[in-house]
Write a structure and sequence with these properties.
The protein has 283 residues and is an alpha/beta fold. The protein has a single domain, classed as Aldolase class I (TIM Barrel), CATH 3.20.20.70. It contains 14 helices and 8 strands. An 8-stranded parallel barrel has the order 1-2-3-4-5-6-7-8, surrounded by 7 helices. Helix 12 links the parallel strand 7 and strand 8. The longest helix has 19 residues. 51% of the residues are buried.
Length: 283
C-alpha cells in the first residue's frame, strides 16, 4: 500500500491542510435534531461525510463519543469509517491508545489491520508508558501504509506537569517524543515525503515548542493541530507554535465546522472558510 505520508500529501494538495473532526457531542446531537443514541451518532457521522465529500480530504472521528453507546455505538463508528473510505476521505481515528506488549499489539490490530472493521488511515496514540511501548502500532502502521499521531504537546493545562518535565538527561519529555518520531521517519525523509509517525501539537500551546527545545520541522511528519477556531487559536498563535514547520500542519477543526450543521451547504461553507484561512496562513 502507498504510505500514509504520500496519501496524506496528495489529499492536502487537493483539499488543503484541514481535518474536520466528527465529534457528535450531546449538545450537537440536540441542535441537529438527532437522538442521543447510537443511531444518532451514526446519522451525525454519515451526514458530515456526505456534506464534505469532494471538499475535505481528512476527517477525524472521536471514538469516545461513539463508544459511550456501547456495542451499537462501536457498530455506528464502523459504519462511519466505512462510509469515509467509500467517499475517498482519509480517516484519523481519535482513540489515544497507549499500553504495553500484547495489549498494545491488540490495539494496533484493532485499528491498523487491513481486515479490521474499525480500520482507519491513522490513529492517535499516547506515549506516556514510554515511547518504545508504541512499537507495535508504529510498526504495523508502516507495514499497512497507515499512520500514527503521537500525543506530544497538548493544550490542556494538566499536560504541562508531564510533557514539560525534564528527564535525567535534562531534556523535556515532549522533546524526546518528537525526536523519537523523527528517528522513525528518517527513511521517508530520504525519499522526500512525510513519514508515517506524526505528532499531536495543540495550536494553543503558545511558546511551549521553543520552551521544550523541539524542532518540529526535523520530525518530517504530519503535525495534527487541534485548537483551531472554537478553542481560540488564530493565525498569530498558529505561527508562534509551528514557525518553520507550518507546511506540515494538519489543522483540526471540529465545533468550528460542525456547529454550522445540520444543513449540508452550511457545513460545506464552514469547512471551505476554514480551509481558506489555513491555506492563507501556511502559504
Amino acid at each position: 500500500m502507498v504510505s500514509y505520508g504520500v496519501r496524506l500529501d496528495e489529499a492536502q494538495r487537493r483539499y488543503g491542510h484541514v481535518c474536520v473532526g466528527i465529534d457528535p457531542h450531546p449538545g450537537l446531537l440536540d441542535s441537529w435534531g438527532l437522538p442521543r443514541s447510537a443511531e444518532g451518532v451514526r446519522a451525525f457521522g454519515l451526514r458530515v461525510i456526505d456534506a464534505l465529500e469532494g471538499h475535505i480530504g481528512v476527517v477525524k472521528p472521536q471514538s469516545a463519543l461513539f463508544e459511550e453507546y456501547g456495542s451499537a455505538g462501536i457498530a455506528a463508528l464502523e459504519d462511519v469509517l466505512a462510509h469515509a473510505r467509500d467517499a475517498g476521505i482519509l480517516t484519523i481515528l481519535d482513540v489515544k491508545r497507549g499500553d504495553i506488549g500484547s495489549t498494545m499489539a491488540a490495539y494496533a490490530r484493532a485499528y491498523l489491520c487491513d481486515d479490521s472493521p474499525l480500520r482507519a488511515d491513522a490513529i492517535t496514540i499516547s506515549p506516556y508508558l514510554g515511547f518504545g511501548s508504541l512499537a507495535p502500532a508504529i510498526d504495523l502502521a508502516a507495514q499497512t501504509g497507515r499512520g500514527v499521531y503521537v500525543l506530544t504537546l497538548t493544550s490542556n493545562l494538566e499536560a504541562v506537569t508531564l510533557q514539560h518535565a525534564t528527564t535525567a538527561a535534562g531534556r523535556a519529555v515532549a522533546r524526546d517524543i518528537a525526536e523519537e518520531a523523527a528517528a522513525r521517519n528518517a527513511d521517508a525523509r530520504e525519499k522526500h515525503h512525510l513519514g508515517h509517525v506524526g505528532l499531536v501539537v495543540g495550536a494553543t500551546t503558545g511558546s511551549a515548542v521553543n520552551a521544550c527545545g523541539i524542532d518540529l520541522a526535523a520530525v518530517n511528519g504530519s503535525l495534527l493541530a487541534p485548537g483551531l477556531g472554537a478553542q481560540g487559536a488564530g493565525p498569530a498563535q498558529v505561527r508562534e507554535v509551528f514557525a518553520d514547520a507550518l507546511a506540515n500542519v494538519l489543522a483540526s477543526s471540529s465545533r468550528g465546522v460542525l456547529r454550522a450543521g445540520p444543513d449540508a451547504t452550511s457545513l460545506r461553507d464552514a469547512a471551505k472558510q476554514t480551509v481558506e484561512e489555513v491555506e492563507d496562513l501556511i502559504a
